[in-house]
Amino acid sequence: MVMFERRRTGRGHERPARIELRNDPGQFVLQLLLSGEFVGGAPDNAVLAGPGDIVVFDAGRPHRARFKNAHILAVSIPQDELRPFVEDCAGLHGIVLKTPASALLGDMMVSLDRHLVRLGPREIAGAVQAFRELLAIALMPSPGKDAARAGTFDKFDQARAAIERRLASPGLSPAAIASEIGLSRSRLYELFRPFGGVASHIQERRAVRLKALLEDPLEPRSIAALAFAVGFASESHASRTFRQMFGAPPGQFRREMRGAAATSALPFEARPPQVSLVAAPG
Predict the structure, then answer these.
(1) Count of CB atoms situated within 10 Å of the CB of 155
(2) What are the tens digits of pLDDT across the range 33-70?
(3) Domains, the chain, with CATH or none
(4) What is the dihedral of CA 185, 186, 188, 190, to 10 degrees?
């Protein structure tokens, strides 16, 4: 088990593809939201979490997250630790444990964070066992919930697929998406509310696609041409959206990517010297 604390404000994160690590059984991360707001989850399951909720992720599978003034306490545990009391570990990815199921486990995480540095090996072993037992309680299934949500997720998947197919079209709109998948606009807005709305999701996906093009060292087109190619109405709109998501304008991002690629292509002896900071003894 690895425990860590984070504070996130107005930042997003997305893992678009699965990570495969040799001889690694996989890690699950439990994120307890102490304060603030979290929106995200598995690509096919948008969830909204608030204080006291615990979001469960398979660290190697695709997921996305957006944080608003969030204070998070997280625990990373091997998947093998979950197998004794979870029939299908794959089904845990992106779920939210809410009170009362999450209350005891959340209290345990806070207590561990507060006292762990003062515990000896025997106390730590006992605390880990207690953590396992409380996790098993929190993960007990709620009958009937999956069936009720299946139709919602199916429509959400259809909407996301329609957006991806038509992302490069400047005329892509919520009305067009709703019509294509046979859903009312009000219901479509409701499905995408956890992600900030349909229009916000569309612009974020365009920014992600623009980022992939900028990372290609053989891509010759200008920033403006690439912005129009992924569906943005203007280069300025693309730049604002890209900077909000990735912390730098597209031009700067491309220069940094190409600079890094050029440096890595140099012979080792020709590369710029690296500086290491080492704390002095005592």
Answers:
(1) 15
(2) 888 877 776 666 667 778 888 888 888 888 777 777 78
(3) 2-138 (2.60.120.280), 155-264 (1.10.10.60)
(4) 170
Q: Which amino acid is at 179?
A: S
Contacts of 29 (CB under 8 A, 6+ apart): 56, 57, 59, 74, 75, 76
Q: Contact at 8 Å (CB) between 127 and 163?
A: no
pLDDT (tens digit, 9 = 90+) per residue, 222-255? 999 999 999 999 999 999 999 888 888 999 989 8
Least Cα distance to 192 among 205, 211, 209 occurs for 205
Contacts of 131 (CB under 8 A, 6+ apart): 1, 75, 105, 108, 109, 112
Distance CA 196, CA 175 (A): 17
